[in-house]
Amino acid sequence: MGLRKQNVSISGALAFFLGNPVLNPATLLFIGFVLGWPFVGLRIVFGVILVFLVSYLASKFADRLPAQQQPPIELTLAPIEDPNRSIGGIALAWLKELWIEIYTILPGYVVIVLLLGAARAWLFPPGLTIHASGMGAIVALSAIGTAFVIPTAGEVPIVQTLMHSGMSIGPAAALLVTLPAISIPSLFIVRGAFPKRVLAFVTACVFALGIIAGAFAMLFMHA
Amino acid sequence: MATRDEALGLSTTAVATRRLIFGTLLFLALFAIGLFIVKWSPYWHKTHVAAVTHSIGSSIVSGKSVEAPPVGIAAAWSYALAYYKAVWEAVLLALVLGAAVPVFVPRKWLHRLIGGSSFGATAVAGGLSLAGMM
Fold first, then answer.
1. N or C: where does chain B have the smaller number of CB atoms within 10 Å of the terminal CB?
2. What ipTM score was computed for the predicted complex, to two decimals?
3. Within 13 Å of residue B2, how many CA atoms lie on the same side as its CB?
4. CA-to-CA dists, residue B79 to A27, A117, A158, A209, angstroms
């Protein structure tokens, strides 16, 4: 959000937004120790595609949008750059930014997390997670992983528990790629920072990469 | 108007540059100290736990069991509680840093770093995000 307010490019801000959870070096180590190193390789490959290629393509896609669909560009001075601002004025500008973030983000964020938390049993039914395999389960879990919200590295124990109970490797790979990348709350938080169609494009890419990762794991990896 | 800086023999551009450096350093200090407390230090510890126990805790979806709790208010509340207990420090830090970027970081410098939509700018931003660990 802050980066886009600074008029950082769409690709740069998206790469930062997606790279944080997907290529988190600590999470990669957790995956290695808990799920095994082949999963680290899978996550790095699909993470790099998502962070670098999808961000880059999304900005090319945004370039073709009509100008009015792009957020207004702020070409003003940052408070720190403005020689007429005192230290107190800069501190006040920071408090104002903080307040805008709090009231535009927190209420909706809390409500969506409550709703997704309530619907856990519908989103992760045993009939889908541990008693199903094949492409149907991979597609369904890619969609669920794209929508559901988890804390940093939360996907590691989720996938560990499900695989321990019988989830096959394809759906596990789909969750490992899609769960951390984006979620309904994360899209809500950055809704003002990117054009709607760019976010739709990124969502479709995460979903598709989950399916590809799942199919790849089903064909070439074994638990 | 004779300012303190003029009295000290500093030109206005030198004053501006000093301010920009100060703002950037302030942001970098918030970034590094905040992430050290919220992310780097706890994860360093957690990595050792993961290496020894091959686990980093139970699933947030279903806890120790395989099935998630039935749909309802209790499931909503318990999930939100577990989720925000895990992320509240990171959310707080993200709000503080998110408000600091447009105020303390000079726009022209940030643009030079990740302003373009070239593949290089994407790569720099993606690389920077690895430190965030959010």
1. N
2. 0.89
3. 3
4. 21, 5, 14, 27
Q: In angstroms, what CA-CA distances link A122 with A108, A112, A149, B111?
A: 21, 15, 14, 45
What are the pLDDT digits (tens) for A1-41?
A: 678 777 788 888 999 999 999 999 999 999 999 999 999 99
Rounded distance between C-alpha atoms, residue B21 and residue A5, angstroms: 20
**pLDDT of the residue at B40:** 93
* Chain B interface disruption, residue of A27, A65, A81, A182, most B CBs within 10 A: A81
Question: Measured between alpha carbons, how far is residue A144 from residues A196, B79, B89, B96 in Å?
Answer: 20, 16, 26, 31
Closest approach of A94 to chain B, Cα-based (Å): 6
Q: Would you say A129 and A164 are in contact if contact means Cβ atoms under 8 Å apart?
A: no
For residues A12 and A3, the answer to whether their CB atoms sit within 8 Å is yes
Q: pTM, whole model, 2 decimals?
A: 0.89
For residues A210 and A174, the answer to whether their CB atoms sit within 8 Å is yes
Q: Which residue has the tokens 């976010």?
A: A199
Compute the distance between CA of residue A144 and CA of residue B126 in angstroms, rounded to an integer. 25
What residues of B are in contact with residue A79 (Cβ under 8 Å)?
Answer: 103-104
- Taking the C-alpha atoms of residue A50 and residue A210, their distance in angstroms, rounded to an integer, is 10
On whether the CB atoms of residues B101 and A5 are closer than 8 A, the answer is: yes
d(CA A37, CA A43): 10
Q: What is chain B's pLDDT, residue by residue, as a tens digit (134 residues)?
A: 445 555 555 555 666 788 889 899 999 999 999 999 999 999 999 999 999 999 999 999 998 888 899 999 999 999 999 999 999 999 999 999 999 988 998 888 888 887 776 778 888 888 888 878 78
